[in-house]
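User: Before I run my own analysis I want an independent prediction to cross-check against. Here's the chain; please return only the structure tokens and, at the end, one sentence I can use as a sanity check.
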Amino acid sequence: MSRPILLAVSHGTSDAEGARAIADLVAAVDAALPDVEVLSAFVDVQQPDAADLLPTIDGPVVVVPLLLSRGFHVHHDLHGMAAKKPDAVVSDAMGPDPRLAEVLADRLTAAGAEAAATADPTQREPVVLAVAGSRDPASVTDAEAMASLLSLQLGTGVELAYLAARQPDLPASTAAHPDAVVATYLLVKGYFFDLVVAQAAGRTVTAPLLDGTTVPRPLIDLVIARYDEAAARLLADAARA
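Assistant: Structure tokens:
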């Protein structure tokens, strides 16, 4: 059996820079996997729609969510559409993962926030990690795990702030930590990034994981790892059938 197709599925955004950044990530993954056909689709806003595209693909498919945590889109949308195609499987979401913590730390450095990782640990303000938020309980588990991974990466405290659905929200977190830097745990620019900038006015705010310049190698490696893990499951299931 040839290697399964990789269908990279992101949320979709009306922000042109964010859309380009996602396309750059998919292109980088495609270049890193010359023996795998890599396709792109979306669950909202942009086309092609993943639910429409997946049934038209011949052969085995690994759906890789370009989403940072579990939630409605992963559990309902992606697993729902994959259940209708016997030779399709959905990989884990991108996060939580130490490679994301590595990129978040790089974004803090790029934003001039090196002091957050080098000051006396007893005197440091925590970093505020701004996450999108979801009503799905699994997304809370993932956000808390990501905060722990970033804390280990930085050697300092990390406090969560939700941009929707959960508390504490970003204004409450920044009010509680008046000198804290805001680390943006979002994949690209768009609605939620604009919300971070507006709600953290006057603060140092990092760029998203994909900042629109170069695609970080850890993100490419992460997508490939998710694909490889799920492809191994798919091929093992096929061998047992």
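Sanity check: Residues 5-93+214-240 form a domain with the Rossmann fold fold (CATH 3.40.50.1400).
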